[in-house]
Amino acid sequence: MGKPKLFSIVSMDGGMRHHQLEAAACQSQSLPPPPPAGASSFCGISLVAAVCLFLVAAWSAIYCLRVVITSSNKDSLLLKLKGWISKEEKSRRHQLGDNARRPEPPGRGSGWWWSAVETLAFVAANGSGRGFYSFVHARHRRHGPPGFRTALFGATHVFVSSPDAARSLLAAEPAGFSKRYVRTAADLLGEHSLLCASHAAHRSLRRAVAPLFSARGATASFAAAFDALTLRLMRGWAASSSSGRRGAGSVVVLDAALGVTFEAICDTLVATLPRDAKRQLQGDVLAVTRAMLAFPLRLPGTRFHAGLRARKRIVEVLRLEIASRRRDGCLRQRGDHGGDDMDFLQSLLLRSQQQQQPDKDDEALLTDEQIIDNILTLIIAGQVTTATAITWMVKYLADSRDFQETLRSVQLQLAPKQDQDSLLTLQHLSSMELAYKTVKESLRMASIVSWFPRVALEDCQVAAATGFQINKGWIVNVDARSLHYDPTIYDNPTTFDPWRFNGEDTKPPYSFLVFGAGGRTCLGMNLAKIMMLIFLHRLVTTFRWEMADEDTSLEKWAMFPRLKNGCPIHLTPI
Ligand code: HEM
């Protein structure tokens, strides 16, 4: 497709990354300016005028910078500037005729001052401890379902929260919309990342990568590997809680979950990295993740710069690994046998090598650059999301002690304590119905990816029956969190109740969007569910726990909503 790159994607967490990036940009630009020389000699009015002028100039500068940063090419840049002047929009409306149009979403979506006000409110929400979603929630309450419109960082954003609207935006590659991304995400993850590729490139990338996730053998070995890591972790916890040391028996769940998910995902993707290289990679992945939220300044000492350098090191490690596999003939040897014990890197290299043969269809052939970008993407997309989800699950169960007890007795019957040394299999996991409902309910409540941004490629409508008129260039966000908390879909939505998933699923399609839907559905959802189930089973059959700190404020500027304190718990071995 020859469409401008701007009109393709953000990441799976892109909405948030994007907003937070921009919010971070805004925050760092709006630090109070130093007082001008001789300010004291100004009369009050001219001081106010000067401050106003400064704010106007600063805002315009931020706006222009944002246009440049988020535009992937010349066309999109021009389009944004045109949209700003809004002449194009007016003439388009005239041509279409008002009768053909549906109502526009309630709320105001343009005007630089309005954009400034809303952006500041968004920034404030991000830095408040209530989390960035509180910005959306407040407007959702003001305007009611099925959505509203606002202006952020100079762009019109629409948030929609009906299953109907979600279907029209997420169903396999809907006409008129594309996933949205910011250029800085491509700088950090690579332009070939699944999260940043254009429509057409995305299709062939996904075709190459998706089979790795559906091979049953690969899933089974992933489950066994993750279980072994979790067992080791919890034995360590058990040992320190029984040693009676001061502070023993308390752990920070988020830290532990980040460690164990990184190890498991990394081993599945590139199994052969030496321990030191893996440790270095973990630090570098963290630096890239943190850079996603930073102002994109390429100056030494900035977070963004550190992220870019970390990316360079990651690319180098993976390049060396690929070269060494080619040099040592590993591809040839393993290629003869195939098999499920291959890591993802090996499978991708092998497939590319086989497809270079003349009789093979080379559409799904991946270059080394594409492989490297997507290995990095998978680690980043998989680690923080899953660790955050595990953390919320543990918190919800700490707050629901009765349900924790019920689940414990069910899990102990399924896999008795004396069998704790043998690793869990996929059969074990598929028999854990109540634990699975607990995972689902935790994902609903946590709504880790709160909304999914799409950009309108042309004037169109969302949800033809009840929906809104959308203009070209608007960013339309599927507000998954709001759907997950809709009382007309989920009874008592703020109550943690895994039993709600009992029996036949009577919920409307597109009302449970924890992993997205359609052509961009989460590729790692089965791995994520496996990790959550195993962590839950091992924890609930080894310990009772309660929160060690009741502070429920959220981490500021986090990529996903999560507890500021990382969820510290007190453990009691059972
Ligand atoms: C609980 C954990 C996870 C959650 C809540 C989650 C959520 C999501 C969501 C909502 C999307 C779609 C976003 C959109 O449509 O804009 C997505 C996409 C994606 N996820 Fe996940 N995810 C999780 C774990 C993982 C894991 C473990 C991996 C891989 C190891 C992974 C890899 C991906 C990739 C590659 C995409 C992009 C797919 C594409 O654009 O084709 N995710 N995820």
UniProtKB/TrEMBL annotation:
Transmembrane segments annotated in the record for this chain: 39-65
GO molecular function terms listed in the Swiss-Prot or TrEMBL record: heme binding; iron ion binding; monooxygenase activity; oxidoreductase activity, acting on paired donors, with incorporation or reduction of molecular oxygen
One Pfam family, short name: p450
Keywords noted in UniProt: Heme, Iron, Membrane, Metal-binding, Monooxygenase, Oxidoreductase, Transmembrane, Transmembrane helix
InterPro entries for the chain: Cyt_P450, Cyt_P450_CS, Cyt_P450_E_grp-I, Cyt_P450_sf
Required cofactor names: heme
Keyword Translocase: no
CDD domains (alphabetical): CYP90-like
Binding site residues for heme: 522
A GO BP entry: brassinosteroid biosynthetic process
Recorded family membership: Belongs to the cytochrome P450 family.
Protein name: Uncharacterized protein
